[in-house]
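Good morning,

Both structures are done.
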Amino acid sequence: MLQNFWYACEFSHAVTHAPKQIELWDQRIVLYRDDSDHVVALRDVCPHRGAALSLGKVHGDCIQCPYHGWQFQTDGTCTKIPSNPSHTAIPRRAIVKSYPVQEKYDFIWLFWGDLPFEKQPALPTIESFPRSSFRPIYHEVTIHCHYSRVFENLLDPAHSTFVHSDSFSPHSVADLPRRLAEIKFFPNSIGGSFYRIIQKTVPKWKILAFWEALFGGKKVSQTKSSTRFYLPNFIAETLDDKIKFRHFFVLCPVNNEKTIIKIISYRNFLMHPLVDGLFQKFTDKVFKEDQLILESLMSSDQSPDDLTAEIYVAGDAMTVGYRKLRKKYRGESILINS
């Protein structure tokens, strides 16, 4: 587990004035918006009898426990106990853990650690975040595997030829001259990036209809696919050609054996809402192919810090870099501006 990091954990639009439960590292957390529309994050356990606050109601800035009506304000302090006689002091232990929260890039970010505010790192700067000319779709996938394995899978360009041959067709993938270039790890920071050049004639018989319509089966010349990752759980991918994609992947570690991937895919073409279902179906198919492999791994627990534990080749450069960064920051306080 990486401590003292900002974890992206939920879509912004999914958090409303009604309580919502999420799980992170075996902890239940309740999210809701207060009267000022700011997001509040509290441990989803009432200190009285352990009921889930997410089953309660929001009253103004406070959340009310569904069991006995205790109310807790945004910092977790109990402000009301209905069964107490008037003017009775509220027990000092009647407090719920609160979490620092930020909202940016269409996600909710939760700080997981114990650093004071002035020492908490900044959120990463996502330069590829799209403008209003892009249409988003949202997707969620659950994979029963440690999140570090899922993270590495998204940084691995070599697996697509074999795992996703049915989605992209054997020809459109196996014959792609992929060239990893400009592999970078950000100085004094918490991530890395790479891009690859894709050049291929798109076969009409196995690719998505919208792709065929755009390219007519002709050669797609030097499409640049760029991937950046940011510890602990955020990956941004761009694809720029005649059409443009922006994919944001957030890997939420529910526990050591379960990961929820929250995906926002932005596109600058075929903007009509009726087309969204096509993209949703395709995304679901691709991740089911990943899921089959990831859940079959003999070592589906955390990927090893010991770099001698597995075999590496040239195509594993990003995986090696990710593991080195993760090992560097495990158990350390992150005091840098990301």
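Second structure follows.
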Amino acid sequence: MKTKELRDLTDDDLQQILDDTCRRLFELRVQAQAERLDAPSELLRSRKLIARIKTVQREKELAHGTVAETNDDESVATAVENGGQE
């Protein structure tokens, strides 16, 4: 699935595909340990799809402003002024 197609999906659809792909990757890893894979490239494809989905999810979070910044300048400045204690 291409990144452009992923961007057109809803958040719920993305999460569903992510869950399915993670499950598939786990199954492939187990199968790879037990026997030879018919298509070893499936491992790489699954990992790349997971990365694409997570990237699109993060883009959507940033676009909607739903994620609080983890490195808030005020809290960092306050921590420095207090000697690392809040």
